[in-house]
Amino acid sequence: MYLFKYILKRLGLMLITFFTIMVVCFVLIKLLPLPNVKVFGQDSNIIQMRREALGYGKPILEQFFIFLKSVIVRGDWGVGENMYFGSDVSEIFVQKLPATILVNIYSMLFSVPIGLALGIYAALKKNKWQDHFVSTGVMIFVSVPSYVYAFLIQYIFCFKLKWFPFLMQPCETLSDYLSWATFVSLIPAILSLSFGTIAGFTRYTRAELTEVLTSDFMLLARTKGLTKGQATVRHALRNAMVPIFPMIIGQFVGILSGSLIIESIFGIPGVGGLYVQSITAKDYNFFMLLSAFYIFIGLAAGIVVDISYGIIDPRIRMGAR
User: Fold this and answer.
1) Which pTM was predicted?
2) Among 12, 196, 230, 248, whose Cα sits 20 to 30 Å from the Cα of 300?
3) pLDDT (tens digit, 9 = 90+) per residue, 41-60?
4) 214 backbone dihedrals φ, ψ, rounded to 5°
């Protein structure tokens, strides 16, 4: 019951926060100058009709409620003005989404097991040369931005060694995204996204597991006859994973945010690159849809992370007093 009430409360707060941020984004966008409709040539009447339907020229708040009604009732986010001229914004978004999801899933599948394994290994070898080696590498990789890795990977593996192509292979159908050639072309982007994530998981896992291994209940488990390996697997890892598993969920959002730049560098036709293009091209319809997407993902991930604590460890009761 406590968890159910907590979820309802968090959902309500999420909707209020989402609505507030969208209002701010919409108002700020409307304060910027619109591209002249005449630059669109003979098809400019399409854009003009769209703008009239959305109440352009009316007070900003009235425009927002017209925009909100259009999105909620008809699912209409408008059409592209400076990008994909005349095309439905939501259709272009759906076409771009598979590439972003694919590269981020591959990155998570690659980085999570390696990060956890290195963190566990460093914790078990605490204060030994293995621990110092891993910790030094973690500090180096955490400090370097992902786009720096991207340029190094492109230079070494794509230019010098020629193991991988510079850009992602073009895909026309869903089966193309799942092909081996597409996976190989995505490896440089996957590596660029994964280095920082692996380092973060390694550092966090080492810290949590080291603290658990020095707890009193671990000494009690050893005195009951369990070996060090048995005590670590049955008790230490189980307790250490309580704060680590929600971090895995939250890290997915972090990778999505980081892919904004990586997608542009490696030519990945995803929503991250589309978001950057919408800002530079001043296409406000694309900007509003993509802003709503990233805002919703971030807020929803926060709720999932909090709820997962209570699911992983029944001793935690979210919302209880």
Assistant:
1) 0.76
2) 196
3) 545 666 666 666 666 767 77
4) -95, 10
Q: What angle do CA 105, 106, 111 make, to 5 degrees?
A: 100
Ramachandran area for residue 83 (φ above 0: left; ψ -120 to 50: alpha; else beta): beta
What are the respective helix, strand and coil percentages of the chain, to the nearest 5? 80, 0, 20
| Bridge partner residues of 79 (DSSP) | 88
**Is there a contact between 124 and 236 (Cβ–Cβ < 8 Å)?**
no
- Cα–Cα distances in angstroms (integers) from residue 273 to residues 80, 244, 259, in the given order: 15, 30, 8
Number of residues that make up the chain: 321
Q: What is the pLDDT of residues 232-276, one digit of tens each?
A: 666 666 676 767 777 777 666 655 655 777 888 888 888 877 887
Of the ranges 116-130, 156-170, 244-258, 268-282, which one carries the lowest mean pLDDT score? 244-258
Q: Write down the H helix ranges in 125-236.
A: 129-143, 146-153, 174-177, 180-213, 216-223, 228-231
With tokens 């995204």, the residue in question is: 177
> 196-236 pLDDT, tens per residue?
888 888 888 888 777 777 776 666 666 766 666 666 666 66
CATH level 3 topology of 95-285: MetI-like fold (1.10.3720)
> What integer pLDDT is reported at residue 132 of this predicted model?
86
DSSP state of 154: I
- What's the sign of the alpha-carbon dihedral 308, 194, 299, 203? positive
